[in-house]
Fold each of these.
Amino acid sequence: MTDDEVKRVYFNFNSAEPIYLQVAQQIEEAIFTGSYHEGAQVPSTTEISRDFHINPATVLKGMNRLVEAGLIVKKRGIGMFVAEGAHAVIVDRRRKAFYQDKVIQLIKEAKGLQISEGELVDLIKRGF
Amino acid sequence: MLTAKERSVTIYLFKRALVQLLYIIFWMIVGFVLVPAAISLINSNPLDLKGLLRNTHVGQMLFFLISLLALFGYRDFKLLNQNGISRKTYWKARLLAYFGISTLGQIVGILFTLLVPFQDSWNRSSIYMEMYGKFFANPLLNILAALAFIILAAYVVALGGIFVGSIFTLFTRKQRVLIFVALATLNVVGVSFIASSASQDSFTGLARSILKLIYFLVGDASRNATLGSFDPTVPFIVILLAGIVFCYGSRIVIAHFKLKSE
Amino acid sequence: MGIEVKNIKKRFGKHEVLRGINLEFVPGKIYGLLGRNGAGKSTLLNIIAARIFPTAGTVTLDGKTVCDDDSALEQIYLMSERNLYPEGERLKKLLKTTELLYGSFDYTYANKLAAEFSLDLNQKFGKLSTGYRSIFKLIVALCVPARYVFLDEPDLGLDANHRELFYRELMENYAQTHRTFIVSTHLIGEFANLLERVFIIKNGQILVAGEVEDVLAKAYLIAGPKEDVCKYSAGLNVIGHESLGNIYGNYVFGGVDDERHLPDTVSLEHLDLQKLFINLTNEKGEK
């Protein structure tokens, strides 16, 4: 994917969530899908700020969340890079959240539609 | 003495006034010399350049033009305000710039009479020399006094232009027209009143005191001096006082300038 | 430090336009000054830039009264809808004058911007369209060395492409200079993410002041069946509502009670700046 494509696919800031969270989430998503490989440079605060018209303080706050989570590292005077093992960290975290966020929701929805446990398992098998 | 900013603004306003002045003079030359010259070529009447030069009082002309220019300062004020210049600096710089331009104007005027042939000699064309030129026994002293008076008078009248111009700036265009009409009417009424009172016996008292005042102001309170040896002290004082009033008056008025949408 | 506006009041005849405005602009931030037409934004900005005088109150920059002080005024540039540039003057000449009076001017940057916006600097100011007047004034605002740049409706007459370009350049300029920008605009949706702090002004008074993020964190839309919504939002600061058939929504500003149980039927979501603004500044009877 070229840089421009990355921008088009991921950076879409318009939900009602705080913008700094959206910044963090979108970069995380790009690391997860491999658009930014480990060790690759992520766009600078200024670039994101300029290209998406977001206040740099807000962008920085989002970036700092990722730094704290160990997903990206600051290299002084050069920029921000995807940390070694960042992908694994994201996968690990998303797996833990998978049951809570997705499975429970799925079962709730299935119950509302009167889909039985067996039927749901069959559906999942079919989808796999 | 001047801050860097005050100096820049003074230079800016001086250049502005100079350019405006040269622009007007250019069109005057076109109107009074070039066009008549062209016409004279067509009907083969030679242009009386000599006569033209003789009758051109450059000093007086510049005196008039500069005080007219001094009336219109709002455009500069707006631009300076947009560029972070305070009212105080605008006022100071405008006073200095007009001191420069009016002094320059008078020097040019004097040089013109001295250098250009066919002109009346300087002391004959100068109103001051005509009225006060023989006050001092020493002729050099009279000339120096005349120079000082001309430069001072030219500047004070320019200051008057700045003062009156800034007062007009406080009002909207409609109000300005109304004030102008009111002043003109008042003027006509006043003059006809004085004229009528001068001719009627019952008002001679008032007319006489007005006349007395005028004689006092021009420097012949006792009305027995001959023309040329009037005392210039009172005129000097009057003009200095007027200068001070215009100077501080314009400071106060400019401090109240607002930016209107016009 | 910064610009402090203290208890500014302004009265035009009988009409009280500003009724005691207090606010502060600290260095290095982008502020939004939002208000409806006639709320008093432009009046306030004109007072700060010493173009008009307040009826009461003071404006100081780093403790110095701004009004008659060149060293304070040269730190301020106010770009406004009102044109103070002479119509007959060429743009190049105006840039020269700006350089002379502000002490310096970034010509390289100005030429680059003029090329980007395709503005010919040999034109006379009076010949420009509304949009290009805005563009010219924006170029001056970005290239002038003032530390506090006030932009009063900078988007006036700009098409979508030029606005996009302007937002880019503003962010680029801000990243490099870290000056203070104060933007007054009606295009809240487009500007919201650019702003760090916001002032909402209504009827000549400051209604909301703070970090955009903090302000938005207190603004919610509570939606669901009318009965449940009203029950949940009882006692909260409801600033507006809307309904679609049976679905009812309450706009709330000032936070919700975390202790309160949120029924399954009711949804709770944050507002964006524009929605919050509209609901805060609606007059009675407006929807």
Note: Residues 5-10 of chain A have pLDDT under 50 and may be disordered.
Amino acid sequence: MKHKVKSLFAMILVCAVALCVGMAAAQSYPTKTVRLIIPFPPGGSNDIVGRFIATKLTERLGKQVVVDNRGGAGGVIGTEAAAKSEPDGYTLLIISSAYAINTSLYKLSYDPVKAFAPIAKLGTGPNVLAVYPGVPVNSVKELIALAKEKPGQLNFASAGVGSFQHLGSELFKSLTGADIGIVQFKGGGPAMIDVIGGHTQAALGSLIQFMPHIKSGKVKALGTGGAKRSVSLPDVPTIAEAGVAGYEANNWWGVLAPAGTPRPIIDRLYKEISAILSSPETQKLFGDQGAEVDKMTPAEFGPYIVVETAKWGKVIKEANIKAE
Amino acid sequence: MELFNNLIFGFSVALSLQNLFYCFIGVLVGTLIGVLPGIGPMATIAMLLPLTFNVPPVAAMIMLAGIYYGAMYGGSTTSILVNLPGETASVVTCIDGYQMARQGRAGAALAIAAIGSFFAGTVCTLLIAFFAPPLAEFALKFSSAEYFSLMLMGLVAAAVLAHGNMVKSLAMVVVGLLLGIVGADVNSGIKRFAFGFYELADGIGVVTIAVGVFAVGEILSNLSDPEERQVFTSKVMNLFPTREDLKRSFGPIVRGTGVGAFFGVLPGTTPAIASFSSYMIEKKLGKDPSRFGQGAIEGVAGPESANNADAQCKFIPMLTLGIPASGTMALMLGALMIYGIAPGPQVMTDKPDLFWGLIASMWIGNVMLLVLNLPLIGMWVRLLKLPYRLLFPAIMAFSAIGIYSVNSSSFDIYLMAIFGVLGIVWRMLDCSPVPMMLGFVLGPMVEENLRRALQVSRGDPSVFVTRPISLAFVVATVLILIVMAAPAVRKLWGAAGASSREGVTE
Amino acid sequence: MKIALRNNKDFWAGIMLITTGAVSVLIARGYSFGSTMRMGPGYFPSVLGGILVLFGLYVMIMGLRSGEKITVHCSIRALIVLPLSLLAFGVLMTHAGFIPALAVLIFGSASAGREFKFVEVLLLTLILTGFSVAVFSWGLGLPYPLIKGF
């Protein structure tokens, strides 16, 4: 009995110390360099978003936030590295829709729900249905009609198996029943080039990537994949509006920390990130690229990831996509 | 005339004090990271990107571009000095460059690499200024079918690389093709030969293999040599190329520039392909092909010009169409967007200071690189006078840091160790790693494009001969095959006859 | 005959090629083969592996005929010590930090050489490690902890 009391006391003491340390840590946080893991190689949208946030966080936190690119296996390697890191607030992770997709695609060594604590959702980049100008269609409905008229003759260019471009295309096919082939490329860039060259007829690609080419007329935008029309293309209907009810495919970015990171640190980070997202500079940067700032609190972001995971999990299962 | 005015305008932009300064910083940093293995222009540009947010876009782009082509300049240095390829594109330079260094001709090799790169840089600046839009349109005509036929031509030409035994060289090409298969299959997403390692999902890095096989393999082989002999001859010849060297190099530099420019314009090719192609062409055209691999200066001049031309012409699709021809170009496009400039054809008219300023700065940057690098040659060559026992641990350290930095991955270090061991084993068995590298570089593109072309054509192989550009490559491939097979077949007949006679006498 | 084989260059080259080819064909059996006009992921590795086995057989027979010997030597010491140093570097980078990993790699590789002077190698290790930290960590800003825990 005495023993139990003693151990109970010890436990309370430990908790109290931990709490104090936690609070003290949050007050003085950060005391050293913070590492932001980007689970993709330099150059992609995750990288650009991540580096931008790292630069702005450095200014606001007063300590260096360094970017650590750990690319590979569709983001799994970097995410695993982050999951294994100390939950002390000095390791953060940038994620995108790939995080939700990977859950259904790979056998992961981390639990995608429990291994991380959400900090904030940063923004959304819808996809766009872009068509080579030589293809005689001017709306989503006409494209579907053409696909039905010539089954198997049209192709979508995709950025690789399991990419959000690929899943967006599969979702389009399953909602419309159109017989359109999906041709895989190594990344979004080569896929886009093939559409601009007219070798594949269309792509459900990232609006960020296609934006300049839509403006210059190298491709036609038939619809965007967001729930609302894109601010950068107000004249282009959403794909759902244009006749594919229920279609929504967005890429998005967010920040996570390993689970167990002290609450005060997460709140502090959310506060700073929220301020960054509200600045006109950030709004302009996202807007120019065809993306939008889409702020979510830690409490909103967690459930959002779960919903996205379930949505893509269903598409992956229906289309029988395997990556292993 | 308008073009002339544009160029003058470009120079007036590029010659402003601020832009000159950023150009210099760019090429300086580029040379430095080019010398270091693994740390490539992409990672460096990514790291420096945030610093450029507060700089005017023109100056920032000039600096970032300087890093990129500066790295191509610097990449040859360690390839020549210690068989350590600084960048993917300089793998080929190891072959003859390093042999020249061992013969005390490192100075000449470094100088010809710099001169060739400068020539290529100059020509490509003019190409971009005069012909960028039509060249970019030409590049768009390439679909998977064209890429496949082009790569097939490269693969068939690989026989040229054979040094000694033809069958073993071809077998090593196949080994390279198989190594290229490691990783996720683009068409199906299945991970092949990955043995459950996520680290292998994106394949093996070309620099990891090259550093393992060439640099670590070379150290192992030097340490193993039982005869006490110097790795580098102590008598270092003149630092600069002789008149004879220059005469020999002129053709390769011109041809290398052409080859590099061609591949540079095509977005679907990797930089090593340009330098490999140039090397194969020079070896085929060379009066005495057996000199290649033994320190032929043509084997440095051609590929080095080619990789610089390739790097610079990668700007053509990016500037005129807003199309990223490589990962680094994608990053530069991202940078443009961050600066609030929408990339694409309108850049030329909307932002003439950016377009023409950047082009003019490339030529200025190339002059700076030449001025910067030629005096450094003396210093580099003096480095080789260090005792080898001090030199090789340093090579090991820089290789390891460089390889680690690519993905921050220890796994790549283990791979590098494995390929080091394979490097010495292949040497012992007299299996040249050079054809293996070519197979490795071409393999994934051959398979990917072949399967994609057939998918798009619904299994109809006639796409390869009904599309005119593809047909041209197919015809060229057949011609190469005939030209190369003729003497080989004759020799084979001769050899078979000789060996059967031996069999009789035994 | 057996003794002759031990040093036979092309015989072993053939064995190496055959093994590589055979292993790749075996592994590729797990991937769908498809057909020539619609290739699956197993098509290329199977066909290439098969070709490699044929090449390997040819090279092996060639070796048996010519009997050429292996002429390049291999120091067992270097062959063990250098890869081990790299292995240590990889492990220490993850668990101990940049400085210990680098020091062990440099010191370890140096000991693979024929001449090994303790003081000289120690100096070399110090200078190279310092130089690398200056260039890579401070100059290029690579985000690796110098020593874990600090």
Note: Chain A has two domains: 2-125+250-319, 126-224.
Amino acid sequence: MKAHTRKILDKSFTGMGFMSVILLTLSLVIVLGPIFVRGIQAFLFFDTVEYRRMQLDLFDRGDPEEVKAELDEVWAERRFIYDTIAAFEEQVENEEIENSWEYPEKIDSLNDSLKALFGPRPDEPEPVLPRDRYGETRWDRAQQTFKLVMYKEQWDYSDPSAMGSKVLVPRIDSFRGTTVEQIFPYMEENLEKLMLPEFTFYWQFLTDKSHDIHFFGGIGAEVLGTFYLVIGTMLFAIPIGVIAAIYLAEFAKEGKIVSLLRTAISTLAGVPSIVFGLFGLAFFINTMEVSQSKSVLAGSLTLTLLVLPTIIRAAEEAILAVPKAYKEASLSLGASKLYTILKVILPAAMPGILTGIVISMGRAAGETAPIIFTAAVSVGQPLGLFETLNQPTMALPWNIYNLVTEHEAVDQIRHVQFGMVFTLVLLVVVLNFAAIVLRARISKKLRG
Amino acid sequence: MYRPGRMLRPVHSSATFLDGNGKVAVSQTTLNAGPTPGRSAKRSIYISEGTSRWRRFVSFSIEGFLFLVTSLSLIAVFFIILFIAIDAIPFFQLEGFTEFFTSIRWYPSGSPPEFGALAIIFGSGMVTFLAAMIAVPLALLSAVSLSDILPFSVRQFAKPVIEIIAAIPSVAYGFFALVVFAPILQTSGGHLLGILVWLFGAPLALIVSFVVGDMLADRIFGDNVTQVQRTAILLLLMGIFSVGLYFLYAPISAIKISSGTNALNVSIILGIMALPTIVSVSEDALQAVGRELREGSYALGATRAETITKVVIPAARSGIIAAIILGIMRAIGETMVVWMASGNASQIPSPWYNVLEPVRTLTATIAGDMGEADHVTGSSRYHVLFAMALFLLLISFFSNLISEWAVMRSKKKWGV
């Protein structure tokens, strides 16, 4: 091969290397981008007057006088719509217009769509379920629901070879030539006056408990459950992990038993997470009976096994990285081995050990499969501290799964789902950044 | 901090701080520190027999305690295998091996129930294989560039990226696959695939046309080839390739994907998830190949690409194999992504290589069916899930041993 060709091959190889790293970064951006952009909207969004009414009713937040004034204002505007429809209904009932038989159905459908947007009228009896008590609480949702007021969704099966397709038929067409016709342009022009959108920062999303299975409110119970699980896991995993690392780094003499231990640790790291879940069910719950059924305790014990290898490896590496001189100086001063380890080596290795701990906290927070059978439930109350011993909990990862796949109105609570994923991912990313920063500081220190 | 009181306490309490003659023993301690013959050889440090024994006992029991705590992980591995096996064996006793491994009919709640897991095992294998096809080339190239090609500043930036990819919880990937990726795939999947073909095909075609063009120019015009002739051939080849890619785009973008939750979706996400493992482990292996080899190769006149492909990668082969095995393990063992986005249809796609059809994997079956099987503890339906877990566990156990062995071998070879 000629030198010229070899040079080109070399260049293209370098180019491919660069491209692969760019692709790597791109995949991260593509995955995190939507989660971050739409997740933030669970916290920062335009609310409507219905939202303020809901917050006042369910969470006792906001000024009652102000909300009442706003409600009066919007209902003054909305009154026109309902009055027009009521007048038209009367006409239909008295058969004052032609083809009056075809209108009741259309009016019902229109009324339903209005109810979804504005909520029930003040003079109606209050519905039982909170989800029916309020109209659209978010401006972005309100605009979508408004589309369903303006247009009726229909399925078009005219092409027998393809699947049915959705078409939007303007509702105004079915009320041509009647008095109701005028409410559609009226609503289109005055939608903001009808809903009063206002920018809001709902940081309580993190701490509020949810109402009516996440139709309203926040993710407080899930955050608390995840917090319990992480703390519980760390209570078991840190002592065991650090002690094991001390043994492996300072005491163990390389031999058959130690290499068996090391193989066990790496095997533990390779066990699929769902197998941990089954083991937790079969061992901690069915055999050891640490609790009657699922509990935070059983979940923490299961997660401990999962994060143990991470902590052991990080701590062992950190201990081995402590300069020999520290240890020798301490021993030469007459300190015992244990004293040296506790007072000299561990403090020096602490940043490295912390790195491992922080990373495994992120893992414990995000793992779903091990807690499915051991700790997580879909619906429940926030737990008290001692209830964690024998009660299952809600947790961010499990409830993300649950809300996305099993909730009855998946599309209506997208913002809650994205908010939850955003919270979890942000938590893990922040923990990992902390670890990265810690590590950078260590390597700076080691370099002098 | 130096705290003499605590550090020297054993010496004080042993009451032998003064020696037999009543002299202060400080200077003698140093004398006796070495292995002096006779009586003091036994107690080279100046403490009584009893204290010395006590101390030895304490240090022995501390070490024993530390060993016990450390061996918890060994006990855990043993118990995991034991308890999964205890609940898995009843299934094989009740139903035998044949149906599980040969039938594709999975109706655990039917009467009589059918436990054919072949389609599920096939699904697991299919998504794992595809994920590996996506992850391995990308990860190896990244590892090579991280260890040999990229400037230091870019490396500093790329490492955290890889760590974050590894750290994102699997349920977040699953959420992305189901809520963001699947709808895109379903509504405009064909175009997306077409764009992907361009994204990967165009640079590859560019490189190939540069290289082949160069060689062709030499072949056709001999030694005194001019720049114009080279460029002409290059442009010709690039033209041919882009026309080819253009015509490839049309049939691919016409593909209709009926369901966004399918094997392809899951494989792409699993591929991304397996990337960090492969990158970081194989980068370690590449780094472990010493500078001597690289410099020797450069000294012989090899280019960087030749050095990497012909010297560094062969030298780091076993470490790279270990990395690939670990990455594949990550993909096989992953639960949430496949449970959420694979479609969970227990079928072998038709034809069997059709990646656009939903599949079902072992992990997703365990996670999904346990909820229904839980309260019928003791039935085949409960035990079959443990049988699947045992199958997964054995796979992971043996791949782990293989990768461990591979890493050991590379360590021994390069003495790191």
Note: Chain A has two domains: 49-196, 220-447.
